[in-house]
Design brief:
The complex is a heterodimer of chains A (about 290) and B (about 375).
Chain A: H1 4-7, H2 19-40, H3 53-60, H4 62-93, H5 98-113, H6 116-127, H7 132-139, H8 153-177, H9 181-189, H10 194-222, H11 225-232, H12 239-249, H13 253-281
Helix pairs in contact in A: 2-13, 3-13, 4-8, 4-10, 5-8, 6-11, 8-10, 8-11, 9-10, 10-13, 12-13
Chain B: E1 10-18, E2 24-33, E3 38-42, H1 49-57, E4 64-69, E5 72-73, E6 84-87, H2 99-109, H3 114-127, H4 143-156, E7 161-165, H5 173-190, E8 193-198, H6 201-207, E9 210-215, E10 218-223, H7 225-230, H8 235-240, E11 245-254, E12 259-263, E13 267-273, E14 283-288, E15 293-295, E16 302-312, E17 315-322, E18 327-333, E19 346-351, E20 357-361
Parallel strand pairs in B: 3-8, 3-9, 6-7, 7-8, 13-20
Antiparallel strand pairs in B: 1-2, 1-4, 4-5, 9-10, 11-12, 11-14, 12-13, 14-20, 15-19, 16-17, 16-19, 17-18
Helix pairs in contact in B: 2-3, 2-4, 3-4
Classes of the chains: A mainly alpha (about 290), B alpha+beta (about 375).
The complex binds adenosine-5'-triphosphate (ATP) and magnesium ion (MG).
Adenosine-5'-triphosphate binds near residues 25 and 50 of chain B.
Amino acid sequence: MGAAPASRDVTSYRMGLAAPLALFFLVFFVAPLLQLLWLSLHNDTAAVHWGLGQYLQFLTDPFSLSVLGSTLLLGAEVTAVCLVLGFPIAWFYQRVGPRLQTIIILIVLLPLLTSVVVRTFAWIVILGRQGIINATLQSLGIIDTPIKLLYTQFGVVIALAQVQMPLMTLPLITALGRIDSNLDDASCSLGAGSWRTFFKIVLPLSLPGVIAGCTLTYAAAITAFITQSLIGGGQMLFMPMYLYQQASTLQNWPFASAISIIFLLAVLAVVSVFTTLGRLSRGYGGA
Amino acid sequence: MADAQGGRSLVVDAVTHRYPSGALAVENINLDIKGGEIIALLGPSGCGKTTLLRIIAGFIAQTQGRIIIGDDIVDALPPNRRAVGIVFQNYALFPHLSISENVAYGLAARGIDKATRQREAQRLLDLVQLPTMSERLPRQLSGGQQQRVALARALAIKPSILLLDEPFAALDKNLRLDMQIEVKRLQRVSGITTLIVTHDQEEALSMADRVAVLSHGKLEQFGSPSDVYDRPQTLFVNTFVGASNRMPGVVVSADRTAAKVRLDAGAEIIARPAGGALAEGGRVTVCIRPEHLQFVGDETGFAGVVGMSLPLGATVVHEVTTADGSGVKISQARIGETRTLESGAAVRLAPLAPSLANAFPATL
Ligand SMILES: Nc1ncnc2c1ncn2[C@@H]1O[C@H](COP(=O)(O)OP(=O)(O)OP(=O)(O)O)[C@@H](O)[C@H]1O
Ligand SMILES: [Mg+2]
C-alpha cells in the first residue's frame, strides 16, 4: 500500500491500454462527426461557400421544425407507453415464483431475439386494412369498414413500444429487485395501504431504473429508422427518414449534416434532462 | 407513552403453518400472552420463529389456528389494520426518507397533519435518545442508531403489540446490552405487549417475563426464565438453554417425583423425572448442569479421570472422562484457594441435589 505507484489513481494506470479503443473512436466517431460539422457549415451543396445558411434554413422552415417536433413527441409517447406497460410487468416479475419469472423474462427478451425487420412486418400484418385487428373487429361486427391503423401515429407508437419494450423492462426489473421486500412489509405494518406503499416507497426507490429505462427507450425510439418508415409509411416523416432523403435522394449533404447536428443536440438535451433527474434521484436507495 | 394503547393480550391458538413448498414451519403452537408482558421466542435457526412472528403481524396467513389480539380474532385483518408494530432484523428503514420522515411514516398513513407528525416524531426520537438526527438519511447512522430509529418508527403508531425479530443480532456486545436495557425500559414505560425473537438464550432469560422455547416448529416449553432454566420439561430445553451434561442410564425404580437411575458411567443416582413418568427398566438421559455437579470423597458418585481444567474467571471448568468413556464438565466457583486439579487425577462426581438432575426418556 505504501508504495507510490499503488496510491496512484487507478484510472491513471497504463492509459496506453485504452489506445486502440481511443483510436477506434477517433477514426470512426470523432472524425465523421467533425466532417459532418464541417459540411453543415457550408451554404451550397458543393461545400465551397462557408456560412450558417443550412441551420437558418432548418430553423426557419416550419416543415423541418414540425418533423423535429413530431420525432421528439414520438419518442415521448413511446417512452410513456413502455413505462406504463413495463412497470407492471417488472412489478409482477418480482412477486411471482421462479418458474413464472423465467417465462416473463423470456417473453420480455423475445423481441430482442428476432430481427427488427421481422418484428415490424409482423406489425404490418397485425395493423393492416385486412390485418388481424381489423378482421377480428369486423367479424365481431364492431366495425363495418376497416379502421386505419397502419401509417398512423398510433400504429408507429404501438409498434415501436413493442420493439423497444425490453429496454424499459430490464432496468425496471433490476431496480425493483434491489428494493428490500421487508420495506413493503414495514410500510404495510405501519398502516399504509398498497397505493401509499407504491407511491411513497416502491416508486421513489425504483426511480433510477425508471430513468435508465426512459433514456434507453427514448433514444432507441426516435432513431428507429426501419420501424418508423415501415409502419409510418410515406405520410409520416420523422428525422431519421428526413435525413436519409436529404442525403441519399437529394444529395444535399450540407443540409443533411445540419439536420444531423440539430437532431443530435435536441436528443442530447432530452437525454441530459433524464440524466439530471437520475442524478437527483441517486440520493435515494443507494444503500 | 402514557397515551399508548399498550397492554393488549395476545393469544396464539393452535397455529400451524405449512409453506407452499411443503415445509412445516410451525406446528400447533399455543401461546397465551397477557397484556404488557415481554415474551421471548427462543429457538435455534430455522425453528419457525420468524414465521410465527410474520403470522402474528399478518404477513403470512397461517394454515390452521387463530390469532387473537385483545378480544378480536385478527385473522381476516391485513397487516395495516392490526396495529402491530414490527422491528425487522435488518431494520428495514426507508432509505430515501429522512429519520424523522421514517418515524412519522405511520402517522402520515393515518392522515395526521404535518405539524403533529413532526412533533410526535421528535418526541419519539428524544425517547430513543437520538434527538439531533432527524434530518439525516438512514445510511448516515450507525447500526445501533438505525435500530433505535426502527424502534421509534414502530412505537409511533402506538401499537398494541410490538414484535422484534432478532433486534440485537447485528450489534456488538456492549451496544447490545445497552439496547436490551433500553428496550426493556421503553417497554416498562409504555406497557406494550412485546414479543422478542432471539436465538440468544442469555437475551431471552434476561429480558423476558416468560420464554417460549421452540424446536422444529413445535413449542417445547413456555414458562418463566427460571422455569425454563431450572425446571426444563424436555431434553431439548435442558440442553439448549444453558449448558448441560447428558448422561445415559437405565431406570431402576421410579415414582412421580423421583427416579433411581443406574448411569452407564457407573453409579446409581436419584433424578427428577422432568418430562413426565418414567417406566422401570427404560433407558433415560439424565441432564446435569456443570455447576450442579460436585466432587465427592466417598463411594457415592461416579468415577472419572480429570482431563483438562479451564480457569474461566469466576469459575473453573474441569473436563472429566467417565468410566463409559463419555466426557462430563463440572464447573466450580473459584473461592479462595480452589485447587486446579492435575490432569489424570481420579475423582468421583455426584449431583448437588436430586432435584438438579433431570431424567428424560431416551429418544432412540
Ligand atoms: N418462504 C418460505 N418458503 C418455504 N419455506 C420457508 C420459507 N421461509 C422459511 N421457510 C422454512 O421454514 C422454517 C422456519 O423458518 P423461519 O424463518 O421461521 O426460521 P427462524 O426460526 O426465524 O430461523 P432464524 O433464526 O435462522 O431466523 C425453515 O425450515 C425454513 O427453511
Ligand atoms: Mg428468523
